[in-house]
Each structure stands twice: as C-alpha cells, then as structure tokens.
Amino acid sequence: MSKRECKRMSAAVPVAGNKFIIVGGASLVGSATAAGLLDAGASEVVLFDNFSMGSEGAIAHIRDNPRLKLVRGDVMRLPDLLRAMEGCQGALLLAAYMTLNMDRDPWGGLDVNIRGVQNALEAARANGVKKVVFASSNAVYGYGPGVKGDLVETTPFHSVGAPPAAILYGATKIIGEQLCRDYKRRFGLDYVVLRYSTVYGERQHYRAANALYIIETWDKVKKGERPQVYGDGSETKHFVYVGDLARANRMAFEADATDVAVNTSGPKPVTTLELVRMVTRLAGKDIEPEFVGDTPGKVRLTSGGAFRIAHEEAFNAIGWKPEVQMEEGLRRLMAWIESNEGRTT
Amino acid sequence: MSKRECKRMSAAVPVAGNKFIIVGGASLVGSATAAGLLDAGASEVVLFDNFSMGSEGAIAHIRDNPRLKLVRGDVMRLPDLLRAMEGCQGALLLAAYMTLNMDRDPWGGLDVNIRGVQNALEAARANGVKKVVFASSNAVYGYGPGVKGDLVETTPFHSVGAPPAAILYGATKIIGEQLCRDYKRRFGLDYVVLRYSTVYGERQHYRAANALYIIETWDKVKKGERPQVYGDGSETKHFVYVGDLARANRMAFEADATDVAVNTSGPKPVTTLELVRMVTRLAGKDIEPEFVGDTPGKVRLTSGGAFRIAHEEAFNAIGWKPEVQMEEGLRRLMAWIESNEGRTT
C-alpha cells in the first residue's frame, strides 16, 4: 500500500486548515478547546450553543478571533445542527445535562443527552463530517461502593446506592457512546469517545457538583474561615485540568484512532482532605478544616473506596497523557478567580 | 398504629374489584397477565397497545371477556395514556422495543423505552394510579464475559463485547427503573420493578432473539432435521415461563412492597445443548444436534460463562417464586404450537 493510500485510510483529521464545530461550545471545555484549535491553525471554529447553560463569559477570551463563529442553536432541533455543521471536518460533542441539572429536570436531561446526541451524529453524517469526538464521562463506571481500585475502560457500570439522577446521567453517557459505535457501524462515521473525569480550571462554571467544591473551599479559606470536609475526608476525587482536556480533544481529532473509548483523567486522584489542604496552602493560610457530616438531600456523588481512573489507554489510542499536576492547575484556577475576569464572569 | 392505618400505609393494590391497565398489553406477557387479573376478580383490565408489535392473535383468548377493554394508543402520545389510565388503580408497563428492534430502529427504540416510560409514569401520577409494575430485564446486568455466576440485584452492568443495540436496550431498562425511583421520590408513586428473564410460553411471539430459538429448534426436529446448536452448546440461558411471570405481575400489585427491583427468572438456567435435547425429547425424536459456528452479522446475546439469575429477592419482596419447570413449560408451548391457535397466530 502506498503512503498516499495509508493516509487516506486513516481517521486522522489534522487541525490546521480544517473547520470544526463544538456543540455545547460556550463552556469550560468548549472555550478551552476552541482556543486550542484556533492556535493550531483551524480555518474556522464554530461554537454552537443555546446559552441555557453556556455563557458569554466563558468565551470572552476568544470572541474577537475572526476565525471563531458563534451560532445560537439547540441540539433538540436537527435543522439547527444540519446548518451549523456545513463544511465541518470535525465535530466535538459536549452539550449535555450533568447530574445536578438531570436531578432538576430529568425530562430535559434525557432529551439533550440522548436525542441531542442522535441529532448531532445525524447532522455529522449528513454533512460528511470526517470525525466526531464525543465527550463521555467516568460516570459510565457509575457510583457507590462498587467503584474502587483502578477504573479501566472495561470496568462495568455500578449503580447500587446512587441517586436516580446520577444513574440517569451515567446511563445517558453509555447510550451516547453506543450511538457513536452505531453510526460508525452503519455509516462509517469515525469517532473517538473521551471519558472525561471531573474537569476544573480557569473559567470554571458553577454547575458541576464536584468541581464546585474547590471554589467553595477557596472562598471560605480566603475569608479566614475553616474549610469544610464531608465525612472523614478520605473520599477520592479524580480531577483533570481543562487545558489537558482541550489538548486531548485536539489529539483525538488528529490521531488515526477511531471506534474507541478511552479515559482522560488527571495525573492522579486526590482525597477530599488532600484537596482542601492544597487549596488552603495556595491561599497562604494555615487553617485546619472542619469535618462535617453529610448534608441530607444534597446530591453528592460518592464512591465507596479509593479509586483511580486509569488513563494509559488514552496514550495508546491518541498519544495523550495529562501534564498539569493538581497543585499547578489549582494555582491557575485560583489566579483566575482572583483576576478581574474571574470575579466578573 | 391501628390496623386501619397500617392498611392505608401499605402499597398493596388488591386485584379483586380494582381496575388495571397493561401498557403494551397485546403481547405474550400482557395477555397472560390480563387473563390472570380477570380471573382474580379485577373489575376491568385495559389493554393499551398500538399494535405495531402487539397482535390481535395474542389476545384472542380473552377478547370476549366483558371486563376487558382494548385501547389503541401510543406511548409516545401522553394524551392517549392520560385518557386510558382514568380510574385505574394499577398500571403494568410492558411496552418496549427489545434488542432486535432496537438494532433495526434505535431512534424509535430510545423513544419508546425512555419517553414512553416517562409518559406512562406521568399519566399514572396525573390519574392517581396507586401502583406501577415496571417490566425491566436481566439486560440491566448486561452482556459479555463479565456476566457470570449468580446475577443478583446488585450486580453491575457489563457491556464490553456486546453489540450496540444490546447495550442500548439494557441502558434503557436501567433508565426506566430510575424513572420509577424518581417518580416515587418526587410524587410518592409506588412501584415494583420486575427484572424479567427471557420469557417463553404459549402465544410466544417471534421477535425475541433467545425465545425464538426454542421454536426454530422445534420446527426443525418435527421435520426430522437435526437441530442446530451454536458453538459448543455450553452457553447459558435462563428462561422464565410466561404463566409464572403473569403471577409475578399480579403479586407485585398485591404485595406491600414498593420502591424495589427484583429478578423474576425460572427455576434454573439451562445450557443451549440441554434446551435442544429437551425440545427433541418432547418431539419424541432421537436426533443428535448439529454443532455450528456463530452466524456473522446476526445479533446474538452471548455471555461468557455459566450464570444463574437469582430470584430469591422476589420471594422476599413479593412472595413469588417460579413454579413451572422448563420441561413442563416447553411441553405447554409445544402443545400450543401444534394446536390450531398456535398455527394460525
């Protein structure tokens, strides 16, 4: 086979010179990825959003780029997507209700996370988009005491003991992944599924249950108050820095890989107590945390034991590994919060 | 607490004197359950179906009962359900795409198995229905090599190696269960989830991937041909007889139990080879099966090892256990196939 033929058979979509759409783009991950694609020479990046959750603030830093196009549209309206995807070589699908919103409005959440994905895949197929990157989640491994040890891509979905909204959210991500598989099988649409762990970083929004905790802790410590730790603080979280994820999205387009789902998590997990101590140190304070019981009625996503979301497969598939350590990522997030931009978003 | 108060706090819905609706009623399980509810003195049983999969033949044996009401309607139309559920104390939710249809039409399957359940629950809530029985499936434990040993109600969902349609189907059943939990939590709507294993019995339809195998085998053996066994015949199936399931549905209404999900499987699993030998014996033949390879492209739901779907929790929750052994159930199914009714359905 000639080099030329090899190239044609690859599912790689180079960023330079190509047009991309980010569905649900006016968001933490969307805006960071758009900036990355523009930096890498994308001819155009379309940010598609209905602004029900996305915000103008999240995209203020890239708004004036002439290669950026903002499209107001809704994933529940196929025509909106069909038009917005015209001429795109790559589509990143981010639009979704997360657990807190799923709890408030399961009807809307199931619509957006399932029909919204179907509409986006259908629009991609109809427009001859070369590759889709679908933002899945470590929620496909579920919640509760069954979630422990190394979470690898073959780990099953645990749901015993989790609140309905969390299970619904995880199940919609499982469905989204399978819809990608189904479009590949039926229509040859190339895709990479990235299973994001909990994202944090500059332009952090206030809707994610776990990432919000970082900001709450910072706000308390800055005021000289004791930060709160739920339970004994041994609960594991595994975050990933938004810049690392933006790079993962770009690399997923550029890689030969297709028809694959991999974890994208940060360098290593932290316990809640470690996290609170890191944030306290960053604030230059010497305050001991207060250990409090669980708040009844609050949707909290707990796991039973220590776990780690393994990201080795992502390196094998798309050559990606996380680079930003938690301390450094937190430092950047806090600097942003204290900056003018963070305070006015 | 007085006896009267105790009674009021129970989630039991006695069958005698009460009105029931079976959504997706023109079906194997629906018609058998309707017959059981009518026998137990239900004042009325509404069979709600759009007849896209349900058939007139499936309900021929109960059609003339004056307490049976047939309503043509669609679970995708909330008004249809709102009207049909008026005055009902109990609602059995059966309407669903199974895996084969999910493969043919994932768009329709996700609609019916998710929005259809939401519509049915909403109609039940709006009409003050006392209890919902939701037909889930052992598909919530998934497929592939991870599915082995005793499958109990806390077993996670395995999906590695399964075809998209099977995973989509299982995920929709997980979602349906959680929607029931959510309606209980938000609105106090009592429910019992029964996780059916593969159903077989008189008025067997021709859409279920696994149960169909019984009829295919019977048809071959009757003609004197060698029945086919895929692989080495060691693959496990765990069937349940339709009459046992009809009784489980009735008992789920009558039990105090609410907010619970339990398995309803037959007395014990069989291997494919055992099953084929049973059917051959019933036909009075002495023919050795033919071992054939897997058929590529055919949706087959395989598991990696021996498993058993445990039904002990169903006894604890609603007092049910299966009564009909596989040999006896097969004898009844074959007798029905050979009867006039079976041949003309």
TrEMBL record, chains A, B:
Q: Check the record and name the InterPro entries matching this protein.
A: Epimerase_deHydtase, NAD(P)-bd_dom_sf
Q: Which organism is it from?
A: Neoroseomonas oryzicola
The residue range of the signal peptide is: none
Associated pathway: Bacterial outer membrane biogenesis; LPS O-antigen biosynthesis
The name this protein carries in UniProt is NAD-dependent epimerase/dehydratase family protein
**By its UniProt entry, which Pfam families does this protein fall under?**
Epimerase
Q: Which family does it belong to?
A: Belongs to the NAD(P)-dependent epimerase/dehydratase family.
Question: Which residue intervals define the domain NAD-dependent epimerase/dehydratase in the entry?
Answer: 21-257
